[in-house]
């Protein structure tokens, strides 16, 4: 699962990240798992040699992606074209990361102590670059983005297909479930409810731009009460407690059918 970060109330820090997931050109693979490839219905499913359990690491073949205009962009409905949305705090837009231009900023955020202790990506610039390129060079199931508020980059997001991610092993995933991970970069932007406002805006943006998606999901650490509160304030509901690598998480869901209620 990609890492998660939201900020609400008086909390200065991001949501607990949990154990990292390695992402290669063929998609994510859980840490420490030796694997074997087994074909299934045109896809490939990774299975864990150590315990024999499927990891739900789906490899989408090139001939499948080639059937759709834009190739891998199909998986997230042309995210780069989604455009800006108006929020109570200003005009907000998701822009896919350009490593050549954006690496210094993302690297600096990842080395902020309040962020690093949850995302676990502090270190040399090459570590941040590897994390970004693994998604950008993959099949399109996860897109790293900068969040621009009134034109200024102030947050980092990962929008991903939760139904194609190892997260789907841990909850009753539905086709096209879409996951959100967020970090707010500047310390001055944390702890004042900005995370909740942007989470709601981005979740609604996903639902607007992805007609097949009925749910937006997230998995903050169960013990990080401010983070859970941020998702609740953003219109997510608490669905379940789930055991993930490195943490016990609160499964948070924003449902299309409840978006005008919550």
Structure description:
By secondary structure, the chain is α+β, with helices and mostly antiparallel strands. Helices cover 23% and strands 31% of the residues. The strands form 3 sheets. Strands 6-7-8-9-10-11-13-12 form an 8-stranded mixed beta sheet. Helix 2 (99-110) crosses helix 4 and helix 5 (194-209) crosses helix 6 (225-233). The longest helix has 16 residues, at 194-209. The two termini are 26 Å apart. The model is unreliable at 7-56 and 64-72 (pLDDT under 50).
- The side-by-side strand order for the widest beta sheet comes to 6-7-8-9-10-11-13-12
Mean pLDDT: 79
Determine the strand fraction and express it as a percent band. 25-35%
Helix segment count? Answer: 6
> What is the tally of beta strands?
13
Helical content stands at: 10-25%
Largest sheet: 8 strands, mixed
Alpha carbon gap, first and last residue = 26 Å
Over all CA atoms, what is the radius of gyration?
A: 17 Å
Topology pattern, helix = H, strand = E: EEEEEHEEHHHEEEHEHEE
Topology, please?
Layout: E1 21-24, E2 27-30, E3 35-40, E4 43-48, E5 54-59, H1 62-65, E6 85-87, E7 90-96, H2 99-110, H3 113-119, H4 125-136, E8 142-149, E9 152-161, E10 178-184, H5 194-209, E11 215-218, H6 225-233, E12 237-244, E13 247-255
Parallel strand pairs: 10-11
Antiparallel strand pairs: 1-2, 3-4, 4-5, 6-7, 7-8, 8-9, 9-10, 11-13, 12-13
Helix pairs in contact: 2-4, 5-6
